[in-house]
Amino acid sequence: MSIRHGLLALLERGPRYGSQLRTEFESRTGSTWPLNVGQVYTTLARLERDGLVAPGGEDDAGHTLYAITDTGRAELRQWYERPVDRTNPPRDELSIKLAMAVGAPGVDIRAVIQSQRHATIKAMQDYTRLKAQALAAIESGRSRERDDLAWLLVLEQLIFQTEAEARWLDHCESRLVRLSRPADGRAEPEPPPATGAGARPAAGARPGAVTTAAATASTTSEATSATDRPRTARTRRG
Questions:
Q1: Which of 52, 64, 90, 215 is the most buried (most CB within 10 A)?
Q2: SS3 for 144-171, per residue?
Q3: Is pTM beyond 0.85 here?
Q4: What is the DSSP letter of 61?
Q5: Contact 131, 155 (CB under 8 A)
């Protein structure tokens, strides 16, 4: 549904053809959710079937243009005003993986958590580095401000999402530690406190492991070199 309404939002600015819509959609979202031309034209066909868009002639190069209809504008306004429905959340691979790993023979679930935490923190660092680049472009006036501001909002959502994921992984590990304690109630010995910034690892974490999003976020600003740009969505623009 986000692609459907995203295309309507772009068409509200004027008639466009398929590959142009794909380029502008990816530019606005920093290629976080890349589209292919076939997907765009399939969506346009459905929008036309539903009376939300209509053919709008051709441009000088012979591309078929599509224009939003009054019905499409009304649908777009309703989409902006309607909260996103969370009654049927999308399937989350990480949640499914941990759910299946619980009790699975031969699977060290705490090792799975540690591996995912490392990847999550790396993603958070990448997003934070890209955020710094987007802010610098906006503040210097060198950017297409509308697209870069939209990309900045997407990046910040990804940062908040990875921060929440890191906290949830810490919680999962702590939960596993509590549930694995002996039935007589004797507590396992607490791990020694982390040295350095005063951060304390989550229960059961390996010594030296970074286990909180806050501790990670404070280190990411040190890695803003443009030559170390990660292979994330924004680097594919252009």
A1: 52
A2: CHHHHHHHHHHHHHHHHHHHHHHHHHHH
A3: no
A4: T
A5: yes
Are 69 and 54 within 8 A, CB to CB?
yes
Sole residue written with tokens 């109630």: 185
Tokens matching residue 197: 């910034």
Q: Which two tokens stand for residue 74?
A: 């009304």
Nearest CA among 77, 3, 88, 14 for reference residue 37: 3
Return the structure tokens found at 109: 């679930």
Task: Specify which residues 58 forms β-bridges with.
Answer: 64
* Average pLDDT score, the chain: 79
Cα 43 to Cα 36: distance, rounded to the nearest angstrom: 11
List, for residues 164-186, the tens digit of each pLDDT value: 999 999 999 999 888 877 654 55
List per-block mean pLDDT (blocks of 10 residues) for the chain, which spans 238 residues.
Answer: 89 94 88 86 95 92 93 95 85 91 90 95 94 86 74 93 96 89 54 47 43 44 42 47
